[in-house]
TrEMBL record:
GO biological process: proteolysis
Any one GO MF annotation of this record: metalloaminopeptidase activity
Family the entry assigns: Belongs to the peptidase M18 family.
Upper taxonomic lineage: Eukaryota, Fungi, Dikarya, Ascomycota, Saccharomycotina
Name of the featured protein: WGS project CCBQ000000000 data, contig 00010
Keyword hit for Electron transport: no
Cellular component GO terms held in the UniProt record: fungal-type vacuole
Originating organism: Kluyveromyces dobzhanskii CBS 2104
Swiss-Prot/TrEMBL keywords: Aminopeptidase, Hydrolase, Metal-binding, Metalloprotease, Protease, Zinc
Keyword Disulfide bond: no
Length: 524
């Protein structure tokens, strides 16, 4: 069947009847099957849903995400990609270092540090008492970062690379993976002295491997492994010679290369490799922030392509969905009284306490600047705006792993390709409260979206999100929810092949309808 095949309403209802009969005969599904809608069939165009105008199928969203995630392996690539996507859809760039003294109604975005982005649409009649609809996510992912001085002595002719785990990286799950290198490089123009940031990416070429020890060696092969000495990437072999005096030095001007501040801190061969990727001289490289990453491409999987298998899901998948939803929301024009934001943060995996993290204040700064542009700004008006706002903290949660069914709380077992998952926690590790839960359920009912629940069992440990930080900093009601996945914090993860499209659909509905629905809750 073609991906663009259109199915009419009668065909959908007929399919629903067949599925119902099969379910009764099989006897394995005690729940009544849901009436077939566009959210139940990957190949049906989303335009079959009258309340959503996207021209893309759920499969097309997943295809685009798979391509996005291997072409943009580091947070700097991710933010640059989203900035380009926003500009292609009419959003204008505002520099945080400039004054925002004249912001007309329209669509805008700003970037901090190349790793923190906020985009927003603003109507001409918006006022602080109307509040702001906000979706926040984090665009960082677990990685192995090159140390400030990554050069290590070679071992029996093998060259090693000094890296540090970002978040929970360098676990056993990183062994035997094909690792590429990429990130942000500061390049200096020798003539003018001007420094610019350039992005490099070795994909599809892997430069490193962290080899496991064969089980034949017994106990040393079992682990856990020391992350400083036993999970060190190997990037080359030069025999017993002096690596820095390798024969290909004759191709380079070593004296000029010594002018780089990084000379001696990193392997000269690594510096030359990065310089070649950027088509610059080693002497022009002044500093870099580089990650190792899995170069294996994502793919659809399962007998019926029910899944996608991809790296770096946490939390780029929700970042992707939030940006695409804001774009989708603005395609029909910006509501005259609307103010909607998508903000993507860095450093969630390490606590968010950085200028580009959720505790760095980019969201608060953005709202304050918009208020100052429209009114005689004061602190009271900013507080009024946030008191009337809703923040969705969009982060991944845990999909049911059938091999470990017993570790999940009954009735809190998210499934793939069903709908977005609401995350709750009795000890406030998640920001969701009872009003937020009711609001999400009402938005789901209004737009035909199924809502799933996740909460940990009493004997389990909860993770964290940016939700509590944003709630405590702004005073805005905050709701934690997101796409469920297998294998969180692994180097490779799995989610449903419809889940990205379902998230974009829900988030678009949130931007469209949150304010009208929230008004019904009064002063709660």
């Amino acid at each position: 069947m073609s991906e663009h095949f259109e199915i009419n309403k009668d065909a959908i209802d007929a399919l629903a009847d067949v599925l119902k009969q099969i379910s009764v005969i099989d006897g394995k599904n005690k729940n009544k099957p849901v009436k077939a809608q566009c959210v139940k069939e990957t190949h049906v165009r989303t335009t079959e849903c009258s309340n959503w105008s996207s021209k893309k199928t759920f499969r097309e969203y997943s295809e685009e995400y798979i391509k996005f995630t291997y072409e943009n392996p580091t947070i700097y690539h991710v933010i640059k990609y989203f900035a380009k996507k926003l500009e292609e859809n009419g959003f204008k760039y505002l520099s945080e270092k400039s004054s925002w003294t004249s912001i007309d109604a329209g669509k805008y975005y700003t970037v901090r540090n190349g790793s923190n982005l906020a985009a927003f649409s603003l109507g001409s009649d918006w006022a602080p008492e109307l509040g702001v609809g906000i979706i926040g996510a984090h665009a960082d992912a677990l990685s192995a970062k090159l140390k400030p001085a990554s050069k290590k002595p070679n071992v029996e002719g093998f060259e090693l690379l000094g890296v540090a785990p970002y978040g929970g990286a360098l676990s056993e799950l990183w062994l035997d993976r094909d690792l590429g290198v990429g990130g942000r490089v500061l390049v200096k123009d020798q003539a003018t002295g001007k420094v610019e940031a350039r992005l490099c990416n070795s994909w599809p070429h892997p430069i490193a491997k962290i080899p496991s020890l064969a089980p034949h060696f017994g106990a040393p092969s079992v682990g856990p492994f020391d992350k400083e000495d036993q999970t060190v990437p190997v990037v080359g072999y030069v025999g017993n010679g002096d690596y820095d005096d390798d024969d290909d030095d004759e191709e380079y001007d070593l004296e000029d290369e010594k002018n780089s501040p990084l000379y001696g801190k990193h392997s000269i061969h690594l510096l030359r490799y990065i310089a070649k990727l950027l088509s610059v001289k080693v002497s022009s490289i002044t500093q870099f922030d580089l990650d190792l990453f899995d170069v294996q491409e994502g793919t659809f999987g399962g007998l019926k392509d029910e899944f996608i298998f991809v790296p770096r899901v946490d939390d780029r998948i929700c970042s992707f969905s939030a940006i695409y939803a804001l774009i989708e929301h603005t395609k029909a024009g910006t509501a005259s009284d609307g103010f909607n934001v998508a903000v993507l943060y860095d450093n969630e995996e390490v606590g968010s306490l950085t200028r580009q993290g959720a505790k760095g204040g980019l969201l608060e700064s953005l709202v304050e600047r918009v208020i100052a542009n429209k009114t005689d700004s004061n602190l009271s008006e900013m507080r009024t705006a946030f008191a009337n706002s809703i923040i969705i903290s969009a982060d991944v949660t845990h999909m049911l792993n059938p091999n470990f069914n017993s570790v999940y709380l009954e009735n809190h077992k998210p499934k793939p390709n069903v709908g977005i998952t609401l995350a709750l926690d009795s000890n406030a590790h998640m920001a969701t409260d009872v009003v937020g839960t009711a609001l999400v359920e009402e938005l789901g009912r209004l737009n035909g979206d199924k809502i799933q629940y996740f909460q940990i069992k009493n004997n389990s440990r909860s993770g964290g999100t940016i939700g509590p930080s944003l709630a405590s900093q702004t005073g805005a009601r905050t709701i934690d929810m997101g796409i469920s996945q297998w294998s969180m914090h692994s180097i490779r993860a799995t989610t449903g092949s419809k889940d990205i499209g379902l998230a974009v659909k829900f988030f678009t509905g949130f931007y469209n309808d949150w304010n009208n629905v929230y008004k019904n809750f009064g002063d709660l």
